[in-house]
Amino acid sequence: MAEESSVLSRSSTSASSDRGVRSVGGWLYSFLPVPARSLEVARIDLLRGYRWVRHQDLWLAFSAVVGVMGAFFLVQTYAIASDVGAAIAAGERLPTWLVLATSVVWVFLAVFLAGDAFGTNGDLDHGGQYLTIRPAADLVGGLLLSAAAKFSVYTIGLGLAGGAGLVVGTGSPLPLVGVAGAAVLIPTTATAVGYPVGLALKGVVRRSANLKRLTTVLGVGIGLAYVTLSVTGELVTLVVSLHPVLTSPPLTWFGHLTVVTTPGAGVPVAGVLWLLAVAPLVVVGGTILSVPIARYAWLADPARRTDDEDPDLPAAPDSRLDDVLDVLCRTPATRGVASTTLRRAVRSPFQFVFVAPPLLAGILFVESAVTTGTVPWYVPWFVVWYGAWAAGAVVPLNPLGNQGGTLPRLLTSPARGRHVVHGTVVAATLVAAPPTVGIALGAGYLADSSLAVLASLALAGVGAVAGSAVLATGIGSVFPRFEGISLDGGRQAVPPSKRAYTLFSIVLSTVVLAVAFVADGTARVLGSALVSQWLPFGLDIGAGMLETVAWLALASAALALPLAYRLAVHRLETYRLP
After folding, report:
1. Beta strand segments in 286-384, E
2. Exposed / middle / buried, residue 55 (Cβ in 10 Å: 0-12, 13-18, 19+)
3. What is the full DSSP assignment across 110-151?
4. Range 102-115 average pLDDT
5. 432 to each of 233, 352, 425, 445, 462, how far by Cα in Å?
6. What pLDDT is attached to residue 563?
7. Are 291 and 136 in contact (CB under 8 A)?
């Protein structure tokens, strides 16, 4: 930050030298950013973003997954563009879906950029102190340039793949000119339109206590809705419903610009000329409009409690929760650990983000059940596995790191290691066991499972959740992690270490598969067929042999649980701060 503050400070020392420049045009110049300073703000913002993300394991893993998927998508884009180019060169008409796809890209970028402005990327760092050394117009210009640069990665990648395909298909380099123009104008104009909307929503929410409390809920709901639409294919239905808007000017002008230089495309040039004339006005107008809106958002006074409301007085612990814990916990120390663990999970729900990815598979199961009217036999066992895995991975898998600043107090308290283990296991089981058993039994009933299988699901649900919490506590105590990662720029969560995460997932998956092979004949038949295909040298394993192996695995797990318990107790009692 020394580099950033020195650069902006040097700029601020010369602010007095150009105040006359801003006063020449009167109040209008207070809304116009100085290009050189906005470029510097954008450069610093991009540099800080790069330095932040390279230390975030979660975002690096997400970027790697998106990169692999993006590479596959770009290869497909190149192949499709090659076919389109060859068809145009052969005298065929330009496909209408190409213009529609360009309109969809612009709309999605505008929506994402509005969300980017509404989120933490639309805030000023250091509590808005930059406003004391630079005018708001320069900072707004820098944020707009930074956002356009970040989101231009999508259009540049698509432009390179699609432009290369058109060049190969038509045999002419001219398509690159139109594609390059569209790759620049689409993110630029989308930023000028989307960012003012996002900043305006930010200002409104900051002035309302009720809306501010609902922000996280609405954000999660919108995210789940988007993922659900994408996975189930209903996103295409949504695009089709917007077809009249997406196939009308001015959105179609971007598609016409993309292929206007492609020989034989035959798109109207008038729309392209209109776009080239209107786009600068949109960019300048959006930038000017963003300045007062940004002031409205950044200088908002947060909603405060009125005088007639009750003051924040210390409250007694929830008596109902204490009553339940009194029944489940034998000692006050165990009850205290369980109560603290539950309350910490409620107050810091970001910890649950690390167990959310497998829920995407649940969307596929729900869609299959709705469309076919049946539930596959393996869905109840997936519910048992996920419930047990989530119960162990949320809190027990990092019993030391989750304590945060209270770890020294816990280590010096009268509570013993067994109290910490008991309280953690009770908290995890109390939260995860009821929904796991309920959903597993419901899925088993819909899957026409026998009474024996349903009974096995109920027992396995409770046993797997409790056992996984004990196992996770043992593994997590050996591989603690104390470094947190930032999820939304303002809050941090401490995930389990990668070694603990991997080892726990492998062991638990093996145990749940063993339970399924022992309790379900269908699972044994399919499992033996799959294992026989994977075994080398033509080896074969029958359903009976697989059941025997599953029993051995369950016996090993039964022996491993007390060992994990003793290991966790020993580590918690003997751990010393570095």
Report:
1. none
2. exposed
3. HHHHHHHHHSGGGSPSGGGGGGGTS-HHHHHHHHHHHHHHHH
4. 88
5. 31, 12, 10, 20, 9
6. 87
7. yes
Q: Return the residue matching tokens 């339970």.
A: 515
- Tracing tokens 């409620």 back to the chain, one arrives at 346
Q: Categorise residue 404: left if φ over 0, alpha if ψ from -120 to 50, beta otherwise.
A: left
> At CA 72, angle to CA 70 and CA 77, rounded to 5?
90
Residues 6 or more apart from 27 whose CB is under 8 A from it? Answer: none
Instruction: Spell out the SS3 assignment of 292-313.
Output: HHHHHHHCCCCCCCCCCCCCCC
Is the pTM higher than 0.90? The answer reads no
pLDDT surpassing 70 at residue 319 = no
The one-character DSSP state at 18 is: G
pLDDT category at 337 given cuts 50, 70, 90 is confident
Query: Cα angle vertex 380, ends 324, 364, to 5°?
Result: 115
123 or 301, which is more confident? 123
Rg of the chain's alpha carbons, rounded to an integer? 29
38-74: pLDDT as tens digits: 888 888 888 888 877 777 666 677 677 777 878 888 8
Report whether pLDDT(370) > 70.
Answer: no
Peptide bond into 280 cis (omega under 30): no
- Cα gap 264→89, rounded to integer Å: 6
**Cβ(381)–Cβ(458) below 8 Å:** no
Task: Name the region of 69 (left: φ>0; alpha: ψ -120 to 50; beta: rest).
Answer: alpha
Q: Report how far residue 388's alpha carbon sits from residue 479's, in angstroms, rounded to the nearest whole number.
A: 20
3-state secondary structure of 334: helix
Intra-chain end-to-end CA distance of the chain, in Å = 28
| Amino acid at position 500, single letter | A
d(CA 440, CA 447): 10
Enclosing H/E stretch for 493: strand 492-493
* Residues, the chain: 578
